[in-house]
Amino acid sequence: MVPVEFDEPNIVEIIAELDAQPELVKQIQTNNVVNSLLKHDLVYRWEQILTELGMPSTPAMEARKARLKAMADSLLNSSESPLAEITTGGNTNNSSSESSQVTVEAVTD
User: Fold this and answer.
1) Helix (H) / strand (E) containing 3
2) CA–CA gap between residue 72 and residue 69 (Å, rounded)
3) Residue 79 banded pLDDT, cuts 50, 70, 90
4) Which of 11, 37, 90, 94 has CB atoms 3.0–4.6 Å from 72's, for a disulfide?
5) Does residue 43 carry a pLDDT above 60?
6) Number of alpha helices (DSSP H) and beta strands (DSSP E) in the chain
7) What is the average pLDDT across 54-59?
8) What b/e sequence results for 91-109 when a residue is b if at least 16 CB atoms lie within 10 Å of its CB, and e otherwise?
């Protein structure tokens, strides 16, 4: 997360500083993907619903969670982040250039 004010007057400079730090941007990207895999997949929502209803998770749900965890572990343990493999579904033979995206969260205090 890169904290910035909602009406940050120096947003261009902040983004330029991030662009000048590709390793930091890569780490931010990896963290975003890992958190998405471990927290924001629909399997976790379904698990909460089933828990509230007093029902157990299904074997398919447990298998999906294991696959998501394996992908997250692969990202965390890799010296070269396999983000392209995950974000393109394994198709790394595309001709588009690699883009750096940074998630910037507004601070509303």
Assistant:
1) strand 2-5
2) 5
3) low
4) 37
5) yes
6) 5, 2
7) 96
8) eeeeeeeeeeeeeeeeeee
Q: Average pLDDT for residues 6-17, to the nearest whole number? A: 93
Name the one residue in this structure whose structure tokens are 């690699």: 98
Reading the block at residue 107, the tokens are: 């601070």
Are the C-beta atoms of residues 8 and 14 closer than 8 Å to each other?
A: yes
Phi and psi at 15, nearest 5°, equal -65, -40
- Alpha carbon separation from 83 to 32, 44, 51, 64, 100 (Å, rounded): 10, 22, 32, 19, 11
- Give the pLDDT confidence score for residue 78 in this predicted structure: 81
* Amino acid symbol at 102: V
Of residues 109 and 23, more confidently modeled: 23
The yes-or-no verdict on residue 96 having pLDDT over 80 is no
d(C-alpha 22, C-alpha 45), whole Å: 33
